[in-house]
Amino acid sequence: MQAQGGAPAPGEVVDHVPFDRMLQAWVTDGMVDYDAFARSPEFTRYLASLAAAHPERMARADQLAFWINTYNAYTIALINSRKERRSIRDINKRFGVTFKSPWAEPIVKAGGRTLTLDDVEHNIIRPTYRDPRIHVALVCAAKGCPPLRTEAYVGSRIDAQLDEQARRFLAQTTKNRVDVPARTVYGSPIFTWYRDDFGGTLAGVGAFWARYLPEGTARDLLRSGAFTWVDTKYDWTLNLRAAR
């Protein structure tokens, strides 16, 4: 049961159904209708529910779902707060110089705290949950990111959701592909930026990939660790859905 005003009662799992509805309506193939979120009173109420929540009282799986949804929702909120429609990296940029990282903006109101997106990712999610799959779930508003799901994460299904998200991201061949004859893996820079979360080596990244590929030569190469790695180009263009 929710407390009056829509805020979650102490210890209650946040209702992510409103966010789920919005994602289904306003996200297509990972591309986002930011204007729809900006106009939505329901989105404002959902953000308020995150602010009033008590994640420390939730089960661990519910906590992780909470923080992933918080990151993704407040990334959308950040884009809209600055009316940015080209790239998140253009926020706080003047004359080609970034004066403050957009990920260092104290925009996140969650669990009774004011946080930055960097706080959520690097000070909460990564050290607390130590699950490399979070890197296919956190979406930083760029086309180079993993695609934003058209559903919210929930604790009861989060393992299946993260596994599906990993398969989906690795199937995007402009970002991730394996050239078996050349023994070369072309991968998103996400995997090299955060290789520590995959065991600290590119062989560890390969072992992670292999979990999500069918049996075959590509999977064998990844498991062997005996490949050359090449970063693919990261596209920082906003993941903006074209007007319908």
Question: Secondary-structure blueprint of this entry?
Answer:
Blueprint: H1 17-26, E1 27-28, E2 31-32, H2 34-39, H3 41-52, H4 60-81, E3 93-94, E4 97-98, E5 108-110, E6 113-115, H5 117-129, H6 158-170, E7 177-179, E8 184-187, H7 189-193, H8 202-210, H9 217-224, E9 228-231
Parallel strand pairs: 8-9
Antiparallel strand pairs: 1-2, 3-4, 5-6, 7-8
Helix pairs in contact: 4-5, 8-9
Write up this protein.
With 244 residues, the chain is an alpha+beta fold. It has nine helices and nine strands. A hairpin with a 2-residue loop joins strand 5 and strand 6. The N terminus is likely disordered.
Summarize the structure.
By secondary structure, this protein is of the alpha+beta class. It has nine helices and nine strands.
What is the total domain count?
Answer: 2
pLDDT averaged residue by residue: 94
Gap between N and C termini:
38 Å
Characterize the overall form.
globular
Helix content: 40-55%
SSE string: HEEHHHEEEEHHEEHHHE
Number of strands: 9
Strand order of the largest sheet: 7-8-9
* Structural Rg: 18 Å
Strand residue content: 5-15%
Largest sheet entry? 3 strands, mixed
In terms of structural class, how would the helical and strand content be classed? alpha+beta
Q: Counting H and I runs of at least 4 residues, what is the number of helices?
A: 9
